[in-house]
Amino acid sequence: MxxxxxxxxxxxxxxxxxxxxxxxxxxxxxxSVKMLSEIKKxxxxxxxxxxxxxxxxxxxxxxxxxxxxxxxxxxxxxxIKNYSYNSNPNNIFDKIYSFYNxxxxxxxxxxxxxxxxxxxxxxxNIDKEFASKINRLNEELVDKINRADLILxxxxxxxxxxxxxxxxxxxxxxxxxxxxxxxxxxxxxISASFLFITLVVLSICFEWFPATxxxxxxxxxxxxxxxxxxxxxxxxxxxxxxxxxxxxxxxFKQYSIYKNxxxxxQQKKNAFNSYVLFEAAIGENDSSxxxxxxxxxxxxxxxxxxxxFLSSKQxxxxxxxxxxxxxxxxxxxxx
Length: 335
Fold this sequence. Notes:
- The chain contains 11 helices and 2 strands; from the N terminus they run αααααααββαααα.
- By secondary structure, the protein is mostly helical.
- It has a two-stranded antiparallel sheet.
- The longest helix is centred in the last third of the chain and has 52 residues, at 231-282.
């Protein structure tokens, strides 16, 4: 939209009635002000559509001409007390009456209304799917704001500090349990790996699983040795090695899982402990800072944490679901 339209939208219609008008002229002056106000409302809504929608330049140029005519009449009415219209103000009143009647005349020859109707159709043809997405996103935003307000109201209760402190201790205990489990699985995995390497070396040195076997045959007093591949032994050896490798990988996997859980619970524990400390520093009077701190805590315990021990796809469900739901349930949270 041109700067001319923006100035037009920002324009306020204010007119000062001359003191020397006759009684009939006073009535015509008030009617003129009312007529210009009605036209201004319709032109404002049309200018907003032009501003937000791509329309043909021909239509935009036509609206510019209408706005320019309106500006001229409005300016003449504002200055009626300062120049020649002072001697016969009915001249400007007649022009405004004529402009108003032509503007709202319900006929097929009224180009002004035809152009305005054409432009208004562009507003109704805006992509419905986009509008639907906007409405859906707005509903989701309102729902999340309501949920956040409910969480904040629960956390702001006097008993909430104790609940948060208890959860910090609970996360600390869970962290220690997971840390001990991860160490146990790591020791088992390393021991199994060392044992597997030792068995492989010993089996090679002492030929516990020979790949070939020798068949002796005697014919006419002559002994013949035939060496063949020992397929049963090879298959057994392959299955045992595969099983041991699977067990070793399983142990390392369990170590990664419990280590991942330990780091997650450690960060959540730190989040709760930090909240208690910052809340004491903020005090009870700074409600805005306290609300921001509570939102930061809710985001921290509900956000996805990449610890590096598991891929993000594997760790995400563990982070977002169980502990947070239990916490807000204890706080009397969402239902």
